[in-house]
């Protein structure tokens, strides 16, 4: 289990940074750069590797039997964990929300099963308690979505790869990415919420340079929205960068809207973190 060797041979690190141009900010002297973490790997892309690396790095068979985490039927986090465990020889368990599901319910679950992840399906009521089944009590636990201090620490290397700038934008799910970036940087960070969990995010000790933007959830997490879908399609057409409407689409929509409405000062240099999620 050689993390350094895996990074060198399988991952594209450091991920590239690309400047994008648009008439809505070019005339204002604003520069927008995209940190292409979506290009790290086809499966462990975006913030997935950043959040998982320290859990994998510190794992030891002398203390635990494997790694266990939680998620839904289409969890990118569990998908990445299953692949990482398969690649590095670490047994993994996924506690899946939905007792009606099976390993054949969708391509995600089938692939995770093929990679050797033990899938444990439980009811939504039981899932909320995040109880660990007795047969997996010797597994090290990673919180849902990968949130945790090790994930927050994992953002330090990401920050080290960023150019000097005035502002950083990132999508916010569990909050680990935004908190970690702000914690390891002196730059102002705008975290764009992708679900209605502001109170949960603010229950953590947030760095003073992190501001939470909650105006671009579009009603409900992952809810289909024609305006947002059109924005993602037009963004890809113009900039040749794929984004999805659940995380990066909401973040870039907020960024564009902030610029158009004068919330970002002229001559600002900003970096948007592409946290992946595009299959």
UniProtKB/TrEMBL annotation:
Keyword flag Isomerase: no
Alphabetical UniProt keywords: Pyridoxal phosphate
Domain Tryptophan synthase beta chain-like PALP per the UniProt entry, residue ranges: 29-276
Signal peptide: none
Superkingdom per UniProt: Bacteria
Cofactor(s) needed by this chain: pyridoxal 5'-phosphate
UniProt keyword Isomerase present: no
UniProt similarity note: Belongs to the ACC deaminase/D-cysteine desulfhydrase family.
Family matches, as PANTHER family: 1-AMINOCYCLOPROPANE-1-CARBOXYLATE DEAMINASE-RELATED
Name the record gives this protein: Pyridoxal-phosphate dependent enzyme
